[in-house]
Records
---
Amino acid sequence: MKIACVGGGPAGLYFSILMKRQDPSHEITVYERNPAGSTYGWGVTYWAGLLDKLRAGDPESADAIDAASVTWTDGMAIVRDERTVHRGDAGFGIGRRRMLALLAERARALGVRVEFEHGITGPDAPELADADLVVAADGVNSALREAYAGHFGAEIATGRNHYIWLGTTKVFDSFSFAFKETEHGWIWCYAYGFSGEQSTCVVECSPETWTGLGLDRMGEADSLNLLEKLFHDLLDGQQLIGRAQDDDAAQWLNFRTLTTRTWHRGNLVLMGDAAHTTHYSIGAGTTLALEDALALAAALRGAGGNGVPDLDAALTRYGRRRRAELLSAQSAARYSARWYENLPRYMRLPPGQMFALLGQRHSPLLPHIPPQLYYRIDRAADGLEPLRRLKRWLGPRLARTLHARSRG
């Protein structure tokens, strides 16, 4: 097959690796509009289960990613000025730039053409004319998807809160949170290491806090100075690092959750953020994109470019499978985003209890039960199997009911 992959993010590069491993005769080109080493974001997170899947797909790139990652097990939160720690499962962080470099190097070693500074602006681009398969891995603003917007049925829901993605010279050895109350409301951040030199720090707040603190009017330098003062105890005096040039406006965003009705049209197929996004607070974006690549490569195993019905059936299987697999992650992301949008509801709890409910924010039951009562039920359920069974039974049913109502 001749394959054109538009977008050189983790999904596009890893998919090209998988397809070359399946059949070295595939002619694969990855087109990335940005220069090599230029990427948005600092570090990405993932968990051990992803490494197992990556090793099954390509042990060499999985080992390289593993070796370049840092790990943590604890979660730490500063609530007002009080610290609390929870034990948890091992998590991993890696610099996004480092991950992309490793995947690009591996792809090239297998014979994939990786062309940086080569943007594709639409499906009629001459580079795509004779491709048997075109993979749209060009992000949430996908030009290929938008060319057939009616067919793909993309829907975008914009979150209420404002957030900014920053780096910091503070190296965290745990996944860390800080919640600070100001006269204009709460502002908080999540931070995690991704190398021995830097960490990611995501700051979030409500629109009222954002405007009340003047963050809507500040340039980046002033914004970082204010945030460093607010989170001084978390950062231990280390600096925050932004992305703007000189004193341009700080790049605050509202998260956009993307869903699509169908994932392919003819020989054009969506992957990663071009097909779906999930709120950053569950730390699953890169994992889900790489899982898309694994699923698409598996669906295409044995599907030849000469038989359009075979290719169409493979792409249909891929889309159906991934839409079903994404339901739990999308549900968790919705509830996680809403938990933060309703943060004041939980901040009257003692810090340890609030942090415990932070870990339960994916639950569809939590928004409908008073936080103190939910905490007590959750603690009781740890020791009573009938309560655990009731919680496991009731949660998914409530989630399906509420999801159906929201779409009705």
Note: The mean pLDDT is 90.
---
Amino acid sequence: MSLSDTRFILLSKWLSQHFNTDITPTLICGDASFRRYFRVQHLANTYIVSDSPVELVPIAPFIELAAAYAQSGLKVPEVIAQDDINGFVLQSDLGDEQLITRLNDQSVIDFYQQALGLLPQVAQVKSTIKGDLPQYDAAFVQRELAIFTEWLLSKHLQLTLSEDEHGIIENAFGVLTANAIEQPSVGMHRDFHCRNILINQQQLALIDFQDAVIGPVTYDAVSLLRDCYVRWPDAVVNQLQMDHFNLCIQHGLIDDGVSFSQYQRWFDLMGMQRHIKAAGIFVRLNLRDGKAGYLKDIPLTLSYIVDIAALYPELQDFGQWLQQKVLTHFTADATDQ
């Protein structure tokens, strides 16, 4: 790191004081926020320390949720020390082996069944010592959908929408919002996918859960099974959907009077909402934060939306419009590269 990196200097000093010896952390990576992660070596042990400018990324939600998730029986990083003023959090080191590195056509069902098996425990966590988690309500859903309109349509593609196009989008967003809020509400990780699940000592461990909320029962499952970074065959996803549905019935997360077809609609439309939001966020990460690497994930994300919209008459106009007016821009960009 640069000697002029003020936060790195502060972090090194804080760690040296904590361990009572000179410590120089090694940068591992940043993530899709303003947070950075470092690895720390002290004697025979390694640790992870996160650097989060508190005015941009508060550390309290992560610390509170780490405690709540651990109490629920989930394997998560243990918080060892924290600097509330500067936004440093020293944590146990669960390693670097992301679930995505172990997935292939032969292993995906087994690993994903294990991951889905964690969701009833995640669902239990609806509060921390500071109170209830935020509600993923209609206003929340609309704010997320608006990211797509503002960043992808307006700022990136600079599209001027006709009145009919506005109507198509508003109708689709209304359907997706209604679908989200009619589902049973559970504790929701909100970023549950193969890059945020680690393999540690043959167990699955969760990270990046600081944005947890109370929300739709299918959200985390569709986040995993229709991942923005990797697409699995429909037969695999369908089998795992049924596994999650049965888990939800077994643990009382869904009433046993709910049919699988109803669950499947919840799941499909929840995935559409999440992918619309994600496509907008990927553009925002590029334009606002200079993180262009996420642009390559947009074609897959949009293709999910087009494919699912075709299955539901009330969303077919939106899917066709998206394919003709939006997806073509990104497939063309991919070809140029």
Note: The CA atoms of residues 95 and 200 lie 7 Å apart.
---
Amino acid sequence: MRAAVLHEIGQDKLEVLDDVEAVGFGPGKVRIRVRATGLCHSDLSAMSGVLPQPAPFVPGHEGAGEILEVGEGVTRVEPGDRVVVCWLPACGACPACRRGQTELCLAGFMNAGTPNFRRPNGGLFGFAGTGTFAEEVVVDAGCAVPIPDDVPFDIAALIGCGVTTGLGAALNTADVEAGSSVAVIGCGGVGVSAIQGARLRGAAEIVAVDPVASRREAALGFGATEAVSPEGLADAKQRITAGEGFDYVFEVVGRSTTARTAYETTRRGGTLVVVGAGAMDDFLQLNMFELFFDEKRILPSMYGGGDVLRSYERTVALWRAGRIDLAGLITHRVPLAEINEALDQMRTGTALRTCVEI
């Protein structure tokens, strides 16, 4: 089968090969025919080494498809079922799951250390234990979440990561209050989803911040009341909040510099939500006095900060009701053979989300 492979960390191009095999099928596993996958910035971060990932590997973790085969003991899905790939399944038994913090379950990460693909010359890992830049993937049954028949594969793929992360940051983690002021720094697919979440909650002012003009323009169509470049954020803070700062600021870039800017843009007693996934050696500096004196809440948001399965269901319900726009997030489409074009679209910021059709 075909799959896009990164041979070494640090390379900026993927090689599409046709001699890859999905392996590991057996009890408790499912084989999925991938039909659509989104390109998330985390894929680029894994390729560059910002996020830890053994190589060689098949990127991709935001996918949807249909079940081809189920292993012994699998009862939740059967061949022919349409599913979204969940890269962080909950085991239901660990301390985090028992506390109701299923997004912090580490069981799924254990899969990332076992190759789930192979070529004639050796094994390949799948990013985050999945690897959806491939025609087929073998994963734990918990990674295959059934979706209704009326949800297209491309829409389902977005729900698998970016939309769930962004919406959840606003609805679960921040719990945005009606009438509040919001700034979102970084307006790709995840940031725009956070904007939609803030709009759903009734935020009065939503400022989209991004260096790319096309993304700023797009953000206005998803609910932002104003869109500015990073250089214009200070002026927006002064005009909209009289210099006090925003009630909620979402950092959706994953860098300490933008996180520091987000902190300074949050009002005293306000909430900074860290959504972007950054590097382990990139440190955010805060002094002990400002932490005490400003009483700002700093809330990291992992995969939307809530029960993933409930978040999927909520997103489908909101999409059906026309309360959120998911199709509009897909600004580009490419076949798997043109995956490197999709990478360039992500790097330059010309795409909110590129759908890779497989």
Note: The chain is about 30% helix and 25% strand.
